[in-house]
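Possible regression after last week's pipeline update?

I re-ran a chain I had predicted before the update to compare outputs. Posting the input and the new output here so someone can diff against the archived version. Not blocking, just want to make sure nothing changed silently.
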Amino acid sequence: MKRILILASNPKGTSVLDLDREIRDIREGLRRSQNRDQFDIEVRGAVRPKDLRQSLLDVKPQIVHFCGHGSGEGGLVLETDDGNEQFVENNELSRLFEIFSKDVECILLNACYSEVQANALIQHINYVIGMSQEIPDNAAIAFSIGFYDGIGAGKSIETAYKLGCNAIETDLPSTSPNRRKLTVIDSPDEERPLIIPEYLIPVLKKKEQLNAIALPAEPSKLSQKSQLEPLIGHSDWIRSLAFSPDGKTILSSSNDKTVRLWDIETGQLLHLLTGHRDRVKCVGISPNGQMLLSCSADSEVKAWDKTQLSHKKTGDNRYTIKASSSPITLVNALPVSPVAQPPIFVAGAGNGRITIWDRETGEWQRTIQAHSSSVLSMAFNSDGKWLASGSQNKSIKLWDLNNESKQPQYVIGNAHMSQILSLAISTPHQTLVSGGADRTIKLWDLTTGKKRSPKHILEGHAGRIWCVAVSPDGTKVASASADFTVKLWDIQTGELLQTFTGHLGEVRAVVFSPKDNLLASAGDDLEIKLWQI
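New output (post-update):
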C-alpha cells in the first residue's frame, strides 16, 4: 500500500487556482488504474505550516504532492489561521523533510518557481519534482494526470515523470493567441510541430544515493472501512438525502427531477416520485416517517403521503405549494421539524426569506426576512425550538421559533470566508456546526454563537464543504466535500476519525442513519454510498 498525501494551499489575495480539478483528476486517474487497490490518498486543504508537520506524522506518505503557489527564493506559500499567505523558507522545509526521509520517496511541487525548493529537498529525498519558472494551471494539471497515470500503472518515478512531461506536450492546446483565426494552411512539407516552451516542463531531481523506502504492509487506518453496495438509479447529480426515522429507507433527490425512496437492506428502489419540472434540490421526512417532502429549483414543494404509495410505483402527492411567489427565486433548504408538534417545515429562499409552513396541510404560517442575501442552509435542533440559518453573505443567525419576534437570538457575522453551504446542530453538546465554501468546518456554542473551544475550526478538506451532518448521539460530525471525500470527526476534540474515499465526483449530501451506525453519502457520480462506521 503506497500512501499519497496531497497538500493544497490557495491563500486569500493570491490568484485563484483550479485545485479542486487537479485533485479530482488525480483521484480519477488512480481509481481507474489497474493497481487502484494499492494506493491510499489523503488530502489536506488550506494547509498551514503546522498542518504540514501533522499530516506527515499522521499519514506517513511515500509521495507528497503540493499544489499551490511558489515564490522561488521566498519559499513555499502556505496559509495562516485566517487564510492569508505564509511563507515556509527553503531551509525550514529541508529540515522538516529530513526527518521523514525514510518514509517519503518522492515530492512533487506543482507550484511556480519551485525548483529552488527541489534543490533544497533533494539532499534528503530520493526524487523531487519542481517547476523552473511560472507554470499555468492547465500545464500543472496535465503533468499531474500523466504522472499519476504512470504511478497507477506501477511505473517507476522516473517513467511517471516522463509520462507527465509527455502529457504537457500532447494534451495542452496551442498557446498561440491566434485561436480560431482564419490562416493559410501550410503544405505538409512546411508543417511545424507544436513547440512547448521549455519552462513549462517540470524538472526532476534525483538523489545521488537513494534511500531505501519501506512501504507499509497494511492499509492505513483511514482506509479501513466497510462500504456496502451503492444504490444506483439516478441519471443526474444527487442533491440531498434523508433517512426515515426507523433507518430502513432513505429518500434521495436529483437534478434528474425525480425523488426516490430506497430500501436500505435490499438496495431496491421502492418508489419513484415524479412531477417536479425542475431539478430537485431538497428532501425531508416527517418524524413519524409518513410524510415525504421535496422541493425543486423552481420553488415548488411537494408533499407525498407514504401510505398512499404502498400499492403503486408512483403516487399522487398530497399537496403542492410555491414556497416563493417569484418564479426566479430558488429555494435552497427545506428542513423538517424533528418533533410532531407543531408540525412544520421551513423553506429558505434566494431572496433571503425564511417561510414557515404547516406540514400536514401545506398552509403558510409566517415569513421572516432573515438575511440580505440568499439563504443557503438551515438546521433545527432536536426539540424543534431553535432554527439556524446560513447565508450567501457569510452570516449565520439563530432563531427562536417559539418567539414571534422577527429578530434573531444572535448573529455570527463573517462566520466563514465564503458562503455558508450547510448547517447542523448537536443538541447534547450544544454545538452548531457550519460548513463553508472556504473548505472549513466550524464549531460554535449554540447558546451564545461564540467560537467553540478547544477546537473551533476543522480542516482537512481540499474542496468546498457541501454538507455537514451530526450523528444521532451528537458525538460525531460527517462532512461531504467537493474533493470527492467524506470525513468523520469527533465533535468534542475535533479529531479526524476517518476519511471515506470511493466517490468519483463531488459529494453533495451526507446523512447519518438513526440506527445501525450507518452513514450515507451521494453527489455527482450518481451513486448513493453506504458506509458502516
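Follow-up from reviewer: compared with the archived run. The two ends are 22 Å apart (CA to CA). Marking as no regression found.
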